[in-house]
């Protein structure tokens, strides 16, 4: 069993991005600029956004955080998105989810300029990704692809089972893993809450990607010997032995599953760190106009 070490890879990727940003600065070019919009003060969203802003600083990018109170109207939020769209100094835009119930997240995502949609959530980017055209790929799936590639994990002809069909991870992951590319060329099964005999299907997986948001759902009896297991989950679970009162758990019961695997991601220290790196990579692409041009 070998760990797919997101901490090691993220440090490597950030160093690469920092070197590129340094070259841009030394050449007198425009420094990539990421904008994040945060609605409310939910602890988890605050933490995620702070981590993204800190990563921008680490690689030498500019960042701007736009905050709104939870009672912001949808119109006010959409106006802010349009202002970022129209600002040529701002290259990438993310709107941190979830949003309050009175705001339609689909309307917000569709208002973001696809050329600044570094989260890869706009329907245009999702459609272009599905067709194999240049696009911003959702940050978590892109991070998983990067991880598979950097660890030289063979994917062609393998059976990939994706557990969870969210538009952020499961659905795009299933599309990416079947494409005629590397990583890819898998036979893909996309499973979800209505799937019958899920454990049996999981046991057929050469590559198992767990993205359902249920702590320690995947157990050893659901994994075949030698499988590659990618754990996208990250949930707080009550743990009185911890000073904080909680522990972070993934969708995979790591201690019992890990011995059966050839490769596995830890939680924390796995996919989550790669997600932030993907966001930095997409922002760099946006500043350079690599997907949609300038």
Features:
Rossmann fold; 2 domains; 10 helices; 17% strand; 294 residues; 3-stranded parallel sheet; alpha/beta
What is the mean predicted local confidence, pLDDT?
A: 94
Number of strands: 11
- Strand residue content: 15-25%
- Main beta sheet: strand number and arrangement? 6 strands, parallel
**CA radius of gyration:** 19 Å
Helix vs. strand class: alpha/beta
Order of helices and strands: EHEHEHEHHHEHEHEEEEHEH
Number of domains: 2
CATH superfamily of the largest domain: NAD(P)-binding Rossmann-like Domain
Q: Distance between termini?
A: 45 Å
Helical run tally: 10
Side-by-side strand order of the widest sheet? 1-11-8-7-5-6
CATH class of the largest domain: Alpha Beta
Name the helicity range: 25-40%
CATH architecture of the largest domain: 3-Layer(aba) Sandwich
Low-confidence stretches: none
- Shape verdict: globular
Stated plainly, the CATH topology of the largest domain is called: Rossmann fold
Can you characterise this structure?
It contains ten helices and eleven strands. It is an alpha/beta fold and 294 residues long. It has two domains: 26-116, Leucine Dehydrogenase, chain A, domain 1 (Rossmann fold, 3-Layer(aba) Sandwich), CATH 3.40.50; 139-272, NAD(P)-binding Rossmann-like Domain (Rossmann fold), CATH 3.40.50. A hairpin with a 7-residue loop joins strand 9 (235-238) and strand 10 (246-249). Helix 1 (6-26) packs parallel to helix 10, helix 2 crosses helix 10 and helix 6 (139-150) packs across helix 10. It is globular. The N and C termini lie far apart (45 Å). The model has no long low-confidence stretch (mean pLDDT 94).
């Amino acid at each position: 069993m070998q760990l797919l070490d997101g901490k090691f890879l993220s440090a490597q990727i950030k160093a690469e991005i920092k070197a590129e940003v340094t070259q841009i600065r030394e050449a007198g070019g425009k420094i990539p600029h990421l904008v994040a919009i945060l609605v409310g003060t939910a602890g988890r969203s605050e933490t995620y956004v702070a981590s993204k802003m800190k990563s921008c600083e680490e690689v030498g990018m500019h960042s701007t955080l736009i905050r709104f109170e939870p009672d912001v109207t949808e119109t006010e939020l959409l106006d802010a998105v349009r202002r970022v769209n129209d600002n040529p100094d701002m290259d990438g835009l993310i709107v941190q989810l979830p949003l309050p119930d009175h705001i339609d997240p689909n309307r917000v995502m569709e208002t973001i300029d696809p050329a600044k949609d570094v989260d890869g959530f706009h329907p245009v980017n999702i459609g272009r990704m599905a067709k194999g055209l240049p696009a911003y790929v959702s940050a978590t799936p892109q991070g998983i692809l990067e991880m598979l590639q950097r660890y030289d994990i063979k994917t062609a002809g393998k059976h990939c089972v994706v557990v969870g069909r969210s538009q952020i991870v499961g659905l795009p992951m299933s599309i990416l893993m079947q494409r005629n590319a590397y990583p890819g060329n898998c036979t893909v099964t996309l499973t979800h809450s209505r799937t019958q005999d899920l454990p049996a299907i999981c046991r057929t997986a050469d590559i198992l990607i767990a993205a359902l948001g249920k702590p320690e759902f995947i157990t050893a009896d659901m994994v075949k010997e030698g499988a590659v297991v990618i754990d996208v989950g990250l949930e707080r679970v009550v743990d009185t032995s911890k000073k904080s009162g909680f522990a972070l758990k993934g969708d995979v019961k790591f201690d019992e599953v890990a011995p059966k695997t050839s490769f596995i991601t830890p939680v924390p220290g796995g996919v989550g760190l790669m997600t932030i790196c993907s966001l930095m990579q997409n922002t760099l692409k946006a500043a350079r106009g690599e997907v949609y041009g300038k």
